[in-house]
Design brief:
This protein is an alpha+beta fold. The chain has a domain at about 5-45 and about 65-105 and about 160-220. The protein is about 30% helix and about 30% strand. It contains 5 helices and 9 strands, in the order αβββαββααββββα. The chain has helices at about 5-15, 80-85, 110-125, 125-150, 210-220, and strands spanning about 25-30, 35-40, 65-70, 90-95, 100-105, 160-170, 175-180, 195-200, 205-210. The protein has a 5-stranded mixed beta sheet. Strands 1-4-5-6 form a 4-stranded antiparallel beta sheet, sandwiched between helices. β8 (about 195-200) and β9 form a beta hairpin. α3 (about 110-125) runs antiparallel to α4 (about 125-150). The radius of gyration is 19 Å and the shape is globular.
Length: about 220
């Protein structure tokens, strides 16, 4: 992610969000490209199941190309909240003197038409109406994509940037942060890096970052 956006987040966080805290690390972070949840009460996609899997412990093996992204004993565990907050674009993991948080830059100029059309589809009860609504959603999404291609980067139009904090917790919930590497996936200079974020409640989440982000949160490069 562009360092200019990170600089914008830092400036906005200082002015709008810190409230006397001191930023100790602010790094770009996102969810894994292919992830599996291993959380009691959630299925592999992170949706509530309403039951406890009988073979829960046996499911903690990683299949080729899919990696356990979140592990915990309850849907309300700290790892689930943090990981789900990283499921959109323009997200950063932030450690301050008192908090662990995810900050997000939302582009106020993006997505309103397609979101309205999608909400209309969800609310439509007739099949015909739903199909018409789906057509509008597809058209709105295509139009929005075309606009986004032409739209300058967010740091060049900071007036469109809205700083949000979809996840905040006391610093005490964070136990440690370790390097993690996807098996059989080579690392190269300038490429992505990964972290395992461990929490005091025993849960953990794996997230994607970059070289500088990994170094900032683990104290070492590579």
């Amino acid at each position: 992610m562009d360092s200019a956006e990170t600089a914008l987040v830092r400036a906005r966080a200082t002015n709008e969000w810190l409230r006397g805290d001191v930023i100790q690390a602010l790094v770009v972070a996102t969810e894994l490209d292919r992830e599996v949840y291993r959380v009691r009460g959630l299925d592999e996609n992170g949706h509530p199941t309403g039951r406890v899997e009988k073979a829960f412990d046996a499911l903690f093996s990683e299949s080729a190309g899919e990696y356990v992204a979140v592990r915990g004993d309850h849907p309300a565990c700290a790892a689930v909240g943090l990981y789900q907050a990283l499921s959109t674009e323009h997200t950063w993991l932030v450690v301050t003197s008192h908090r662990l948080a995810v900050l997000r830059l939302r582009d106020r100029a993006k997505g309103t038409a397609s979101e309205d059309a999608f909400n209309a589809v969800k609310e439509e009860r007739s099949v015909g109406g739903a199909l018409r609504g789906l057509g509008k959603f597809v058209s709105a999404s295509a139009a929005e994509f075309a606009k986004s291609v032409r739209r300058p980067p967010l740091h060049e139009r900071p007036g469109d940037a809205v700083l949000e904090s979809p996840y905040e917790a006391p610093r005490a919930v964070l136990a440690r942060v370790e390097k993690w590497k996807q098996p059989l996936v080579p690392q190269f200079r300038g490429g992505p890096r990964w972290l395992a974020v461990h929490f005091a409640d025993g849960s953990w989440a794996r997230v994607k970052t970059d070289e500088s982000g990994q170094a900032a949160l683990t104290g070492s490069a590579g």
